[in-house]
Amino acid sequence: MIRSNLYSSVLLDPCLNGADELYIVSGYASATFTRRHILDLLKQSGPSSKVNLIIGMPKKKRDHQGFLSLLDSYPENFHGYYYEGRPSVHCKLYSWFEGNFPRDAFSGSANYSQYGFFEENQANQLTTDSPTEIR
Fold first, then answer.
1. Is 118 helix (H, G, I), strand (E, B) or coil?
2. pLDDT, tens only, 41-99
3. Interior/surface letters 53-92, b for 16+ CB within 10 angstroms, e for the rest
4. Percentage of the chain surpassing pLDDT 70?
5. Rg of the chain (C-alpha set)
6. Which residues share a beta bridge with 96?
7. Helix, coil or strand: residue 17
8. Which of 3, 74, 83, 135 gives a 20 to 30 Å CA spacing to 54?
9. Longest dimension (CA), the chain
């Protein structure tokens, strides 16, 4: 179980080991946090990094404009979707791939946001999981 350094351990370190595409399902997500993460990935791993995000709970209007801006600014690196089915999806899943090869995956309590990934905001945990099942 991972309880500290979630941002590095889950969202950056897999790229250092060759992973280049992240699939995320998160109940809530922040456009500002997503921008930060994409910029960190591009700085660390180059232009091949991709983030695919499905947000499972109702959206905030201010974040919606931010996500639209991300789609415009990073069309090769970010794909975002809202799940509109019922019931809403509150899980938090992160699955890394290198091409079509499964690398790392995590599930737990951390939403894809500042509050989910930095300990000073909120205590969360993630544990290893199956990349293929999550994708």
1. coil
2. 999 988 999 999 999 987 667 789 999 999 999 999 999 999 988 998 999 999 999 99
3. bbbbeeeeeebeebbeebeeebeebbbbeeeeeeeebeeb
4. 99
5. 14
6. 22, 104
7. coil
8. 3
9. 38
Q: Are 34 and 116 in contact (CB under 8 A)?
A: no
For residue 35, give the amino acid letter: R
**pLDDT, average across residues 6-17:** 94
- Enter the DSSP assignment of 7: I
Determine the Cα angle at 49 with ends 93 and 125, to 5°.
25
- β-bridge mates for residue 9, sequence order: none
In angstroms, rounded to a whole number, what is the distance separating the alpha carbons of residues 128 and 108?
9
What is the secondary structure of 37-74 as a DSSP string? Answer: HHHHHHHHH-TT-EEEEEE-SPPPHHHHHHHHHHHHH-
Residue matched to tokens 């974040």: 63
* Gap between the terminal Cα atoms of the chain: 20
The token pair at 46 is 């180059």
Element of type H or E holding 36 = helix 31-45
